[in-house]
């Protein structure tokens, strides 16, 4: 009886192992995690409302993390300014933070009235229809270059149709 139990158990264990292995290999095809295990970010809807002056400008976008690894947005750079900050809005006041979470299989939304990228001291003043390039830096993922569309000052992505 004892020997039979042991054998059944061994068979069950090896079956489990086989399932785990096949589950693993089929998973790697459908996952967005790159081979080195870094999360990969996709950015959509990036825009900057036309700046009122050359002092500052905000930028908004949605950063999507399709991987199983949580990450953080840690900084933003752009040819338009040497001082880009990540701001959150609390009690209608904005304040600088050093990083923002991009959850696993989730997204970080930068939108009017909330989290945003802030350009301090613009090198020029972009107009509606211009493009502004920014590079997003993450704790784990590779940097992502994004082209922001410069929109009219009242533009709000949430109010536009089809998005
Ligand atoms: Cu701000």
Could you describe the 3D structure shown?
By secondary structure, this protein is α+β, with helices and mostly antiparallel strands. It folds into two domains: 1-30; 41-158, Immunoglobulin-like, CATH 2.60.40. It has one helix at 2-30; strands spanning 41-49, 56-65, 71-77, 83-90, 93-97, 100-102, 106-110, 116-120, 131-138, 144-151. Strands 1, 2, 3, 4, 5, 6, 7, 8, 9 and 10 form a ten-stranded mixed beta sheet that branches. The radius of gyration is 23 Å and the shape is elongated. Bound molecules: copper (II) ion. The site of copper (II) ion has 5 residues, from β8.
Supply database-style keywords.
elongated, 163 residues, 2 domains, Immunoglobulin-like, ten-stranded mixed sheet, 1 helix, binds copper (II) ion, alpha+beta
- Overall mean pLDDT stands at 85
Distance between the termini: 65 Å
Query: Strand tally, please?
Result: 10
Regarding CATH, which class of the largest domain?
Answer: Mainly Beta
Name every ligand kind in the structure: copper (II) ion
Helix content: 10-25%
- Total number of helical segments? 1
By secondary-structure content and strand pairing, the structural class works out as alpha+beta
CATH superfamily descriptor of the largest domain: PCu(A)C copper chaperone
Domain count: 2
Task: Briefly characterize the structure.
The protein is α+β, with helices and mostly antiparallel strands and 163 residues long.
SSE layout and pairing:
Layout: H1 2-30, E1 41-49, E2 56-65, E3 71-77, E4 83-90, E5 93-97, E6 100-102, E7 106-110, E8 116-120, E9 131-138, E10 144-151
Parallel strand pairs: 1-10
Antiparallel strand pairs: 1-2, 2-7, 2-8, 3-6, 3-9, 4-5, 4-8, 9-10
């Amino acid at each position: 009886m004892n020997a039979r139990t042991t054998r059944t158990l061994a068979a069950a264990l090896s079956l489990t192992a086989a399932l785990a292995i096949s589950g693993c290999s089929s998973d790697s095809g459908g996952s967005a995690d790159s081979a080195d295990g870094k999360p990969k970010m996709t950015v959509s809807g990036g825009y900057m409302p036309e700046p009122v002056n050359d002092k500052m400008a905000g930028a908004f976008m949605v950063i999507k993390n399709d991987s199983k690894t949580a990450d953080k947005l840690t900084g933003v750079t752009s040819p338009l300014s040497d001082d880009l900050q990540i701001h959150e809005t609390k009690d209608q006041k904005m304040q600088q933070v050093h990083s923002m979470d991009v959850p696993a299989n989730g997204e970080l939304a930068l939108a009017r009235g909330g989290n945003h990228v802030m350009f301090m001291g613009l090198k020029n003043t972009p107009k509606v229809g211009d493009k502004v390039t920014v590079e997003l830096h993450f704790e784990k993922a590779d940097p992502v270059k994004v082209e922001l569309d410069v929109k009219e000052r009242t533009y709000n992505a949430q109010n536009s149709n089809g998005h």
